[in-house]
Amino acid sequence: MAELKITLVKSTNKAGSKQTATVKALGLHKIGQTVVKADNGATRGMVRTASHYVTCEEV
Question: How far out from the chain centre does Cα 36 lie?
């Protein structure tokens, strides 16, 4: 099964509550932190919601 490597690249200090909650739900806390998640519709939707705060690549 494919996986996604998601990295937080921008601070969420002035982000809306929805984007901040999405970034936390992905498990990201600090800039530069990377997590690997399963590639499914839910994860892709979360990445799309916070697309300007994270980068995503397939592993």
Answer: 10
Q: Which residues pair with 38 in a beta bridge?
A: 3
Return the amino acid letter for 50.
A
pLDDT tens across 17-44, in order? 999 999 999 999 999 999 999 999 999 9
Q: From CA 58, how far away is CA 21, in angstroms rounded?
A: 23
Domain boundaries, the chain: 3-58
* Distance separating alpha carbons of residues 44 and 12, to the nearest angstrom: 19
CA torsion through residues 4, 20, 10, 33, sign: negative
CATH number of 3-58: 3.30.1390.20
Q: From CA 48, how far away is CA 35, in angstroms rounded?
A: 16
pLDDT > 80? residue 55: yes
